[in-house]
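pls ignore typos typing on phone
nicotinamide-adenine-dinucleotide + seq
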Amino acid sequence: MNILLTGGAGFIGSHTFVSLVDAGMRPVILDNFVNSHTAVLDRLRAITGHAVVCERGDVLDTAWVEQVLRRHQIAGVIHFAGYKAVGESVAQPLKYYHNNIGGAVSLMRAMEGAGCATLVFSSSATVYGDPATVPICENFPRQHTNPYGHTKLVIEDMLQAQRIAHPEWKVAVLRYFNPVGAHPSGLIGEDPVGIPNNLMPYITQVALSQRPRLQVYGSDYPTPDGTGVRDYIHVCDLAEGHVAAIKALFAQGESFTANLGTGQGHSVLEVVRAFEAASGRTIPYQLGPRRPGDVAQCYADATLAQQLLGWRATRSLQQMCADAWRWQSRNPNGYR
Ligand code: NAD
Ligand code: UD1
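k done
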């Protein structure tokens, strides 16, 4: 079964490629490499022992995407392609609306043209904004606090409208919590451009002395140690969640929306300690002010995915840190 991965050369897409091959499916990558490197393709071949099929181009090019869908006889699509930096989306909103929403519209039109109606979409826990309580269930109210989050809300709504208009469409909306870690081979991982915005890549760069210390954003939150609490999920668990989701769409044909998280929250200082234990390195840090827009606690109620898909995250925080460290220490400059 051939599955198209838009954005398949990126962090989550590349790990999902491996899980799909492991599950006996034939993934095809579609990527314009705006936020990834062609070097990932050789790494994927080394991990899987299979040829890697990749179509280089832009998801905004509807006619070309339709040709790709037809040429590879694609049965289903996993749509990862998009921009994801919250701060940049505030500074350059049109860049985000154009690529993320425009990309989703373009892909869906190409799918209509090619007669492909099975789609898994990368949404985010950001659609819950500042939740009133934790853990967060799928039926909690949605809100957005920045243009990036707004694009996820709009695309979720577009998918819903398309399903209502065309009941043959089968859609899985997956709301990721905080994906971290890397494939245990150390060959693929997260490779942010410039100063990392997110906690784990920042910590791994401090561990390599590429940055002097971690700034902890806020130590006065109403959490056990005062630092922010998040639901960190190993990217390989997340990747396996996509395999379970696309299989469920093919098997039952029912559309659904599900959180992909572990259901467990960890504070910033807990992550620092777990990373120190996994790497044997000391992480200097400084407690500082809160980052604007951050919430105190965000973690999933992960039971729906387990009920619907028979999937749950199994890898520990220790494993996430060990794998993130293996990737970063073996590839201090990422894919460059
Ligand atoms: P990533 O930037 O590593 O991967 C995205 C890929 O899409 C890149 O390879 C990029 O080159 C490609 N791309 C972007 N625009 C494109 C276009 N117009 N045409 C073709 N390719 C294009 O990001 P990621 O972390 O792997 O995230 C994948 C998806 O998951 C994104 O939609 C993101 O918003 C969502 N998500 C990520 C996180 C996270 O923390 N990483 C959390 C929640 C949701
Ligand atoms: C970020 C995104 C969010 C996205 C999510 C999942 C922002 C504002 N939000 O959220 O839209 O859905 O990733 O990938 O970027 N921290 C520090 N020091 C740092 C970096 C982070 O203390 O240098 C803290 C944060 O305050 C937070 C925790 O670490 O408490 C995790 O931060 P981060 O990795 O950026 O993820 P989120 O804030 O959950």
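Residues 278 and 322 are 5 Å apart (CA to CA). The mean pLDDT is 97. more later
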